[in-house]
Design goal:
alpha/beta; 5-stranded parallel sheet; 19 helices
Length: 485
């Protein structure tokens, strides 16, 4: 045995019978640990072999994924790391092809226009939708959008490819595929619709109107912590498998997928492998974004100030965990809708079981990386609702202050904080403000905070939290900010 295909853990179904039903753009660790895993479960039941995944890489850096998968007949291992130290490894076979767009534009469009392709799915990151967080509009002046509007038959972006493929399908009389966003952002289906329709409108308004009328864009909520694959993960996978897997995936055992059942050309029977098919994903989406992702931001920004490296360290810290639980109860739960079938208090308990899983070794730097794109959705959206309703905002505002001090690049032990964004100049301007207008520099970043700095209550609370944090230190403020407003 010298290949994954010959391994006892390899799929038992006939992979030569798998045909493309889904084209997926943005094949990374999360997609391989999540959507591809669900489809592999179906295939192991002898179903959905006509829903195989053809991956598409659009960026130059995606060549590495193409090469890794192609060398292994598109097989890879997925290892679930349980809190008790138990590891559970499987070999996933639902991806059966991969196109590298910079070298094969025609091949990508060919598979996207094939009548057998009925879903085009996306994990292109929150920032990949080219949508302004403040206005909600598609950025028509971005380089990629401008290029694809001027040269629609030579697309470079994911949405340019989708528009061109839909144009070709329309001309050929082929029914349009469903566009299924699986990215971690509110209303991901709506965001995908906005991006595709707006891109089409730049070059062909009639096509844009047709897409808006005939193409389905279901929203979904996805959840599974999937840290970046490390060299140690590669070595461990080789020891377990007895064969080299160039790019294995590791993930936590927990997984959830809540999906709106809106598909124009059908879908795999996802409900048979644990996917929740619903009419309205919004309650589940808000629950996850504000409870899980909001907690991730708190772990990242408080933990890094205290010199920590990993999420499980921060989650196990009594002061941080108590602060987060209080924040969720006091300022987040009041902003949520009832979630069918979910006890929100039990959901919070489950979050901390997941966060404290040492085996995952999720880094605070990875969590903090999503600050600029995530804080507006995960924290600030609920904070705005609390402002409008006259509810408490102090803890959410304190988190913003902690973020700003972390952006200076030094923790409270004198260690270096890895900078994952370009906010350090604003943080330095804030520090030099000396009580003047400069102290508002961080929250006057309208790309993140929009017009929040104009709100007197938020502005006053922020300055008070910033002063208290400087005086008391992160651990001191974590304790004292638990007091009721």
């Amino acid at each position: 045995m010298d290949t994954l295909a010959a391994h006892p853990l390899a799929p038992s179904y006939d992979r030569s019978a798998v045909t493309t039903g889904i084209v997926h753009m943005g094949v990374g660790g999360f997609h391989r640990a999540h959507q591809a895993m669900y489809l592999d479960r179906l295939m192991r039941k002898g179903k959905a072999l006509d829903w195989g995944i053809c991956g598409v890489g659009l960026l130059p850096s995606d060549r590495a994924m193409r090469d890794a998968l192609a060398a292994q007949d598109y097989l890879y291992s997925l290892t679930l790391k349980h809190p008790d130290g138990h590891h559970e490894t499987s070999v996933i076979g639902s991806i059966h092809d991969y196109k590298f767009a910079p070298e094969d534009r025609a091949g990508v469009l060919e598979v996207m226009t094939a009548p057998t392709t009925r879903i085009v799915s996306l994990t292109v990151t929150e920032g990949g939708y080219n949508i302004d967080d403040v206005t909600g509009d598609f950025r028509t002046n971005s380089a990629g959008a401008v290029h694809d509007a001027a040269h629609p038959s030579e697309p470079e972006t994911s949405f340019g490819y989708i528009v061109e493929a839909l144009r070709l399908r329309r001309e050929a009389g082929t029914a349009p595929f469903t566009v299924m966003s699986c990215d971690n952002l509110p209303g991901n289906g709506h965001a995908a619709r906005t991006a595709v329709v707006s891109q089409a409108r730049m070059s062909d308004p009639e096509l844009a109107a047709w897409i808006d009328e005939h193409v389905s864009f279901p929203s979904c909520m996805v959840d599974r912590i999937t840290p970046k694959t490390t060299p140690a993960d590669i070595e461990e996978a080789e020891k377990v498998l007895g064969v080299r897997d160039t790019w294995p995936v590791v993930a936590e055992p927990f997984t959830q997928w809540v999906l709106e059942d809106q598909f124009t050309l059908g879908r795999p029977p996802y409900e048979e492998v644990g996917v929740q098919l619903v009419e309205d994903v919004v309650p589940y989406e808000l629950m996850k974004l504000r409870l899980l992702n909001g907690s991730h931001q708190a772990l990242g920004h408080w933990g890094r100030l205290l010199g920590m490296t990993y999420a499980h360290e921060a989650a196990a810290d009594v002061d941080i965990s108590t602060w987060i639980r209080t924040y969720l109860e006091r300022e987040v739960l009041p902003t949520l809708q009832p979630v069918p079938g979910i006890d929100l208090h039990e959901y919070i308990n489950t979050l901390f079981e997941r966060f404290t899983n040492k085996a995952i070794a999720d880094t605070l730097a990875r969590l903090a990386f999503f600050g600029p794109s995530g804080m507006p959705k995960f924290v600030l959206a609920g904070l705005r609702e609390n402002l409008a309703a006259g509810r408490p905002i102090r803890m959410g505002t304190a988190l913003c202050a902690a973020w700003s001090l972390g952006a200076l690049g030094r923790d409270e032990l004198g260690g270096q904080i890895e900078q994952v964004d370009d906010l350090q100049p604003l943080a330095e301007t804030q520090e030099a403000g000396g009580g003047g207008e400069g102290e508002l520099a961080f929250i006057r970043n309208t790309a993140i905070f929009s017009d929040l700095a104009r709100d007197e209550r938020f502005r006053t609370t922020y300055l008070a939290e910033l002063a208290a944090l400087r005086k008391q230190g992160a651990r001191g403020r974590l304790k004292t900010s638990l007091l009721p407003d």
